[in-house]
Predict the structure.
Amino acid sequence: MSTYLIFSFFLLLILLLSYLILWRINTRKYVSSGNVASAYDSWTEDKLLERLWGEHIHLGFYPPNKKIDFREAKVQFVHELVSWSGLDKLPRGSRVLDVGCGIGGSSRLLADYYGFNVTGITISPAQVKRAKELTPKNCKCNFKVMDALDLKFEDGAFDGVWSVEAGAHMSNKTKFADQMLRTLRPGGYLALADWNSRDLNKQPPTMIEKIILKQLLEQWVHPKFMSIKDFSSILTKNKNSSGQVIFDNWNYYTNPSWFDSIFEGIRRPNAILTLGPGAIVKSIREIPTILLMDWAFKKGLMEFGVYKCRG
């Protein structure tokens, strides 16, 4: 091996190690709901996430044996969860709360396609501002800055409650469930999807898995993960729940989203390049976490839980 090749190899190795060290140092460890808001404010204001993921900041649903576009899969996910949860049984004009609405992608689809009157709440002021900018005046959506652990709505105010990938940011899962079910009218529909860990009491994590879980928590402001079984139990025992909770693991349908989210930058390079050099650095910075998420979900360390119940 030539001296040039040896030098190139070690230079590449040093750059890779430096990158991983910086990635590890610059974590987004959960401190409070305030730094969850700050993280989403930052992601929204730099527009990188919106440029790459579109208006739906959640995973997609990939039907078996069918090729589907990354952004189309996200829309498909909304329709699949609506149908699976029974939310589509609600008549047009029903009041639906979107907890953790992001920039309003799901809220607008629920309003435009299903005819619901949707209220979206998020802890991020920047997301509310952007959601309002993206929402046409004739769309029956309104957006508010609000903490999901302290919903400022009356008991039974909504016919349906919808929440996708918000629960992982909640420090108190019991209070999260209680606030949603409290605002759901008796007989109303709850449709929820979230990132869960497997049952770590039943199958304790290995040393490597502990390290990976720590990174998944600290990189994207997650206080803790909970198993599908444990969160289902919280919903079942809640005084405002009908007590009949149905849940499932949609890993098989959603896992392709992780690699697709990386390839999206290749498919739509201008989405990043037009935002400047900083956006390129930020997009590369997220790749290790995305790859860890992909590994964790494929190996079953993480599970994509979906839940439905009646008020």
